[in-house]
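Listing 4. Sequential folding, example run.
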Amino acid sequence: MSVSETLEQAPQQLRVFAETTATASRGRVRLRTLSNLRWMAIGGQSAALFIVFFGFGYSLPLVECAGMIAASIAVNVVLALRYPASHRLTNREATVYLGFDVLQLAALLFLTGGITNPFALMFIAPVVIAAATLNLGNTFILGGTAFAAVCLISVFHEPLPWPAGEALVLPTLYQAGIWASLVIGIGFTSIYAWRIASEGARMSAGLAATQLALSREHRLASIGALATAAAHELGTPLGTIAVVARELERVLPRDSSEAQDAALLREQAERCRAILARLANPEETLLGETARLPLGPFLENLVEPFRGEDIDITIELLPEVAGIAPPQVWRAPELLHGLGNIIENAADFAKTRVRVQARWSASRLSIAIEDDGPGFAPEIFERIGEPYITSRPGSFALGETEIGPSGTLDKHEGMGLGFFIAKTLLEQTGATVGAINLDSGGARVSAFWPRGTIDGEAPPGRGEG
């Protein structure tokens, strides 16, 4: 499978991450890299100038050429004093930086024979560097600058340095060939460098997306393994708790508060055993004869366990276009647990009201859960959906052991895994999950599906393809 196919099949947040990685990998070259390359060019230009003038004794405008080299030295010194060596240049800065090199080289060649100077080949270097590190627009700017410089110095230039009393005059056709070879060389090498760099960026982005997906799957698999172990280990103590609670109910006065507490303890123990049964065999427990329900009854079944005397949970079914019947939704385990967890969180944090709003059209289906609670804490809002991120007091994630601010249990306590698991499970059904704080107070968590993902002919994640 190709990298592009892998990214197309990745969840939305993985595709965004990969695209961001690919963009960030281009156009962020370090200043030290370009400065070192310029020092090398300065050294080569100085050596060539020294050898031609003092070694061969050829006449050339030494002061003007030395001034061009001194300008490059000055630019490097100023940039070294202004920025740290690790400074990374933006696309625009790097374009200006390399554009200066093109113009400086053009000025030197103008003084020393134009394109008849063998060192005209060095025009290729800045453009190739731009193609390998910058975006396409800035590469075009550098390529256009180099093309214009080659055209100008091919017509306007000083004579090529040569022994005194002799003159080297190349045929016009030969000079045209040199010009064509320079232009073609600049174009070919820059396109080749761009394609290679782009393919490398796409491969890096694909690798980053794959690593992120594997990391998420590994964490989810680890949680699943912990849940299986918990189901096995907790079965016996929960059975003991249920037996003891039943014995307490039998010996305590029927109408006493202690008997009511014992009955509540037994009911909660039985609820825990039912949850463990679902963890042990989710397919048979969650999918039965009513494996597919209309959207209204489906949501009613979801919210029923969380309704209480102090929390009003309402369901709104709102077709975006009149006349479209409510979809038939699969009771997939991922869907039930993911939405159920979000509804439970909303009911925990709500003051008086939770609203479950479903909308659908011919192309998409959305389910949003709103509450009138305090909303998401600002310090964790940007990291919602990551594991062990929670605003619940008394969290004992990441090694913390204190329970509650004063050592007591609180209904809002948690490890910061609930929303992470819910979001991951919903994304496995094809959903895009988002969360916002409402201006009126409270929070809103929304999930969007393309039609046919959770209301198609096959349950989500089990169809062909």
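-- end of first protein; second protein begins --
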Amino acid sequence: MTRIDFYVLKDVDREALFRFACALTAKAVEAGTPVYLRTANQDDSALADEYLWSWPQHRFIPHAIGNTPQRANSVMIHTDPPKECEGLMINLGDDVPDFYGRFDRIAEIIVSYNRDTGRERYKHYRHRGNPLFHHELDDWENSL
């Protein structure tokens, strides 16, 4: 069964969602885990792409926009389901995608602007019996 981790940040800005997604992506890549950044739309895909080029400042995370895995990239960014589902999906959308159960693990990042939709996603996963884990993070950027 897919494990769901909710990361609740004290941040209020939407950009924190993307910065934290980059931090999670970097850790997963270091561990050899494939990552799928699921975005709500093309603009968010472009924003995630931009962040992965520049944040964290001391790293570059190889990635590609598209739902077909690239041999050199273990990180894909897209709005549609990937061709191969494995590893970690970081959900940057406001809903639960139908294909979430094909991943080993889902990361849901909650900041103040998406708190209400985050509650709805939590209820959805709980109703389906997924194991849920809750992480409250205060000063996460200084611990990277």
